[in-house]
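Reminder: ligand-aware prediction takes two inputs, not one.
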Amino acid sequence: MSGEAVSEAALMRLFEAARWAPSSGNFQPWRFIYATADGPHFAQLFDLLVEGNRAWCTHAGALIVVLSRNAFDNGKPARTHSYDAGAAWMSMALEGHWMGLVVHGMAGFNFDRARTELGVPDDYTVEAMVAVGHPGSVEDLSEKDRAREGKSSRRPVRKSVFEGRFPAA
Ligand SMILES: Cc1cc2nc3c(=O)[nH]c(=O)nc-3n(C[C@H](O)[C@H](O)[C@H](O)COP(=O)(O)O)c2cc1C
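Here is what comes back for the chain with flavin mononucleotide:
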């Protein structure tokens, strides 16, 4: 990322895209805690990241913590809370892509500290973090991160898709 600021308006456009994700019973379990690079909370969110992510997140325009509410008001578990929050994050990522932004999911951070330091209640699950920014120059990355910039691969679709039942081992 380049270090160029991500405006509040651009961020809100991402959250608006997330807002329209489908969810079971329209429960909309997703919640987001964000910090812009020029705002007062960035250092706190940045500090949650593992070293490897800090390396390439120094020039992020914003960091986001994705949460999901894991129980209904009556205490019953909301089974698809993570699935629904995943749909919301993907909506956000696609919107950001159309806007020419980098929107990069992260599991490399301290989940427990995120919960305590950001005051996340027990009925919310800490799902992931997201870095948002304007694309920068690949040369500014570490050698290790530069090597990851090529096209990534996926296993063939037939290895993820089974007709009728799960295949025997
Ligand atoms: C939930 C989630 C967590 C991720 N965690 C990290 C992370 O901590 N650090 C990182 O550099 N990339 C992280 N990634 C990015 C993945 O490694 C990346 O999406 C995957 O390797 C496929 O590459 P592509 O998205 O460029 O096609 C994460 C992605 C997702 C969806």
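Residues 20 and 169 are 39 Å apart (CA to CA). The helical segments are 8-19, 42-46, 51-57, 81-98, 111-117, 143-147. We will return to this case in the review session.
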